[in-house]
DNA sequence: TCCAGCAGCCGAAACGTTTGGGCACTCGAT
DNA sequence: ATCGAGTGCCCAAACGTTTCGGCTGCTGGA
């Protein structure tokens, strides 16, 4: 038994396929008496008719499907949030998300994008694993696209990224407001936008309090627990009056390392040293003792924004100018910040 | 400019649409001279022709698309791995994955599954967030389906779950092989398959070494860091000769709590107490000092298996009997297990 | 010379929609 | 009676494939 089609509804209701289609799609121009509408709708309901979206897509030249392309779905614990945001936004507009996890290989990536285009996706969200600057794959040429968590080297591509500097400033400001004056930044050593932008944010927040970041209050290490451990050890292992009372760490994994360093030195968090992280990785931030105060990346919001602007540009007939968005990174307070000792 | 179609290739090559289709699909029955094949292929290559998959799907009554339905894409840090596995398996068979993150609401879930069916997906992977027993939503009736990380209450549904007992046994065996005799299990308190199956595994492994699990060597708490902290504290806070030298924790978050408890009591890991976790959450397991020895859940493999068996059943003409699979949970060694003290 | 058989190719229908164009009525005004 | 303007509905083409059932024209055997 095949699915029920428009024809079935037409036959049952006694009208033509055309009329049924008009009624079901509620075509504005056409005037159709209520009696007809009712009979058609009754027939459709009785048969539990739903349109075949493939046929619809073929005829309408629009699949109501958008592709989500990234190389990190499997690896990043945050990918899920952007996907979720993207999906919610798509659903709200009657579309659906097709996932494509590209390998590292550029050729493969282009092939996979073309595969999506063969399937007539209406547009594509190209998601980077972490905030970076990139040049979009060639296969994206000529189809509506939005970059997520990335800026393009060339202009002309809409994109959305987190407000790294603002987030970092919020973290430092939180420390300042608790009375801290000696504040260290345990930074990542990679040369990526997040490192430099967060450093900018730290400097801005300190400057706003008439403070500056002393060279011995800045360390750079690999962005994992071990790097955080080393960085924190460097700044904390000194006499109390020279020791920072507040630590801002590049991310939560490094903050975890900072906890370990503090423990190693016999310092308590937050009584002896306050710590703020970045990323809001639930798994870590909520598990630590005390809970880690940190800054959240707006993954969900970026996903939503990406799909929303993507669909705006699909819906609009003439070509829109690209949009560039920067979304805020809110502070998430837990228990790792207190007033400085003494 | 529209995409290039079969017609374009036909016109350029000088053959009919039919012939072009035969050549490009390499239809077995038809005899077509090489000269023709070459001309058609040249034309197709010149125009960079690729078929419109919507039209193809409509005609073939097969979309080469499979739906991945779950309620946890956003929340679970592991979802990505199953998705990745599913996607890899799908890609290997020329299909693509459509993601659908259902809400908690059952109605919504059914609607979303129907939406997938309207889009003519060939089959559906229904993924649970954690190992459980469930009854599949009504909307899945009549379409090839595989349950991932879940068993069905009714028979007739193919499904794949992790070998919880085997994984737990491996964890305890690892401790036994390092010479531990007093081993405690810091269990989760929820009544879910994972808790009872892992407990079974613990008992089996101990029994194989002629040991039993003493009541005071088993605790049950909420499955987060705090619960692990409490559980570990309970078993560890006693005189050394009664204290377990090895701890197996329900999951890595609880293991993290156990580290905290050990620290609280002045016990070093692994010199004074060895700890094994479950889940292999990189974020935690690799960040801890020392690194956490744990048991990995086969998310990726389950994803692959689900799609593979799904596509087997789609491809086979007659209805296959359901398959039930249990995949192994391998031990991942890091640094938290050593010989017991003394 | 005829015809069967076959290699090589193609027309047209079908998949399930949407939609431009138009037909057959009715009704009120002339 | 005739006309014009609506109203209510429908035919048929189109979207881009696949595939059934042929149709040609050549070859070779009788």
UniProtKB/TrEMBL annotation, chains A, B:
InterPro entries: HTH_LacI (IPR000843), LacI/GalR-like_sensor (IPR046335), Lambda_DNA-bd_dom_sf (IPR010982), Peripla_BP_I (IPR028082). GO terms for molecular function: DNA-binding transcription factor activity; transcription cis-regulatory region binding. The keyword Transcription regulation applies. Keywords: DNA-binding, Repressor, Transcription, Transcription regulation. Pfam families: LacI, Peripla_BP_3. The keyword Transcription regulation applies. Residues 4-60 form the HTH lacI-type domain. It comes from the Bacteria. PANTHER family: HTH-TYPE TRANSCRIPTIONAL REPRESSOR PURR-RELATED, LACI-RELATED TRANSCRIPTIONAL REPRESSOR. This is Substrate-binding domain-containing protein. The lineage of its organism: Bacteria, Bacillati, Actinomycetota, Actinomycetes, Micrococcales.
